[in-house]
Amino acid sequence: MAMFLLLSLAVCTAGSEELPISAALLDDGESCDASDASDSCHLRLLQRSAVAKMESSESLEDLADTASNSTLDWQSGRETGSMCMLYHCPSTLGPTDCHHWRCICQNGYRWSKLTNKCEGAKSAAIVRDTGGSCWWFGCSTSRGPTSCVHHKCYCVDGFTSVDGKCVRHGAEEEEPDTTTTTSLPPPVPPPEMSTQCSMPEKTCGTLAKETSCCDTGYSCLKSPVAAERVCAAVTSSTEVPRYGLQLNLRSPSNAPLLTFYTYRAQGKTSYPPENVNMASLAGVMWYLNNEIVGRADWGGKRKFDITRILRYKVQTRATQPLMELGMNFGARFAFDSGQCTGPFSCDEAWQNYGYFVGCNRMGPFKGFPFPDFPVAYEGVWYSFPGKCPQMKYFDKTKKGSNGLHCLENQPGGYCKGAPTGAYDCTYNFEEAGEISVDELEGIQDYDKFFNAGGREYDRITDRGTQMTFWDGINDAKKSKWRVDQAAKLFEKHYPGTSLPDNNYEQCDFNYDYFYQKKKCKNRVPGDECSQQIALAKSSQIHQHPEWFPGLTPSSSDFAFQMTMGKSGKTACSIPCLR
Questions:
Q1: Using the 8-state DSSP alphabet, how is residue 296 labeled?
Q2: Strand 229-233, strand 276-279: pairing
Q3: What does the H/E/C string look like for 145-160?
Q4: Which listed site, 213, 235, 365, 449, has its alpha carbon 20 to 30 Å from 89?
Q5: Quick one: which of 500, 441, 446, 467 has its CA closest to 285?
């Protein structure tokens, strides 16, 4: 049984392409490091590196022991055969819970071999399907009274299949709900948000008290050789406790529900978008243009062997503390091998705002945190915190480590159904199609194109050879044309599924308020803010409606103050909602 679970983990989730794992790995899987100016080696290579470690005999033994320990409470009839150690259970399995790192059907549902998903206990797929085949021979008499329908053995009317055998209605036993829940510690005041943290291996406090944050990827721990705390690297031995979150993070928020598309550039392998970065269509096109096509360090080929642009339909809802600062999104954190790497302290941010979705705009200005230089593409990058975002992938599953406790204590923001805005329910996603980079560029066979001397793009000359698609990376018109071509290709393959591209406008992260450099403040009648609001409503909104998106002259003073406060260009602060 342990080996069965191990194989389930090796393919990550149901629906992943069934390829030999070793065939998907790169020989230089460690070639990405901190010197890479990109968003840290990006997603596919990181997962491949993790899978490479899993293929080692030592890792297999460790994971087998972990899997064996997790099968002590096996759920008869509810097991799906998929794991949820690193990721949440995929929606394609139907209604599931993550139980001891295994995806099991929710109470009242059973696993159907007919549909390969969890079906209601009273559905035809469950109550009569024995799982047996009658393709070559009739149904076995050991299954009880059955009939052969479409080469499948079904119980006759009046009987229900239980563990492959037909019993009379009422004879089957109800499965007890043995799934477990965890509780949070009592609420404590969140730490102040820092924008300057101690460097690695530097002092961060005394033995009795932590006095400063550490750069992300490091934790303020007691020094084994001195009477102080130092910033030590987060490893599988680091204790990551549950947060004592504020009460307003433990309940649903009043923030609006947002629905939009995000995109990822990826190769042949597939895995869930948790503890990763994604982008708007313009954002992913810039990433391809700037970091993927025509890379000299990859012999002129595409970096990471990227072949596809994947699209996800995402829903997000901000937590209450974030919404009260006028934001639907927090800071966009980077992820390296499934570990949050900042900017600044991810832990401080999550204790203040829960596991929020982060965003940052990019365009003809310096972005925060990246790219910190002007670009021609006007796009957005996002971060999606998943389980145990403090540790790297395989620190979370090492034998005898604290990684499994971290996976329990730090659930991340993904949840099933519409996000509520509670600390652990800020987003969900579903696959929404993909397009081929080859088709987008207009080539039939990439290898043939490359072997004939073709090059998609050269960063030095700013042009390709036998291809012009990526020419002019800093040309705004050409960049917009490339984004439009990608959008048209998605519409070609998935007609009628387009959504308004509001990513840029929706990304409302505000550095000053998020990092508590500014505080909310309600206007007072007659003060400078009130005077500016009156001027905005009477004349400025008619002259410059683009300054006040979503507002009309009849909108409330509160709405005007929120918009003007977030701009940072008026005497108004954002209003206090409490």
A1: G
A2: unpaired
A3: CEEEECCEEEECCCEE
A4: 235
A5: 441
pLDDT the model gives residue 506: 93
**Bridge partners, 265 (sequence order):** 309
Task: For residue 23, give both structure tokens.
Answer: 């065939």
pLDDT at 74: 66
Where b means 16+ CB within 10 Å and e means fewer, 475-485 reads eeebbeebbee
Spatial distance between the Cα atoms of 189 and 243, rounded to a whole number of angstroms: 10
Over the stretch 194-241, which tens digit does the pLDDT of each residue have? 888 888 888 887 777 777 788 777 888 877 777 788 888 888 888 888
Beta strands 258-266; 218-222: pairing state? unpaired
Bridging pattern class, strands 427-436 and 455-458: unpaired
| Choice among 54-58, 434-438, 456-460 with the minimum mean pLDDT | 54-58
Structure tokens at 479: 């960049």
Residue 156 confidence (pLDDT) = 83
380-411: pLDDT as tens digits = 999 999 999 999 888 887 777 788 888 889 99
Q: Give CA–CA dist 57/41, Å, rounded.
A: 26
Q: Is the pLDDT of residue 578 over 70?
A: no
What pLDDT score was predicted for residue 182?
53
Spatial CB neighbours of 292, under 8 Å, sequence gap ≥ 6: 265, 302, 303, 304, 306
Angle 43-54/57-69 helices, nearest 10 degrees?
Answer: 90
As a whole number of angstroms, the distance between CA 497 and CA 510 comes to 31
Strand runs (DSSP E) across 108-256, as ranges?
Answer: 109-112, 117-120, 129-133, 146-149, 152-155, 159-162, 165-168, 203-205, 218-222, 229-233
Is the full-model pTM beyond 0.85? no
Q: How many helices (H) and strands (E) does the chain have?
A: 16, 23
Given a cut of 90, whether residue 263 has pLDDT beyond it is yes
Residue 374 main-chain phi, psi, to 5 deg: -65, 145
Longest CA pairwise span in the chain (Å): 89
52-56, 192-196, 253-257, 336-340: the lowest-pLDDT one: 52-56
Which of 21, 30, 14 lies closest to 87 in space, CA to CA?
A: 14
Give the whole-angstrom CA distance, residue 144 versus residue 134. Answer: 14
DSSP 3-state assignment of 5? helix
356: Cβ–Cβ under 8 A, 6 or more apart, which residues? 318, 319, 322, 329, 330, 349, 350, 385, 413, 426
| The two three-digit tokens of residue 69, written as one number | 């320990």
Give me the residue label for tokens 């012009």.
Answer: 468
For 550, the token pair is 């979503």
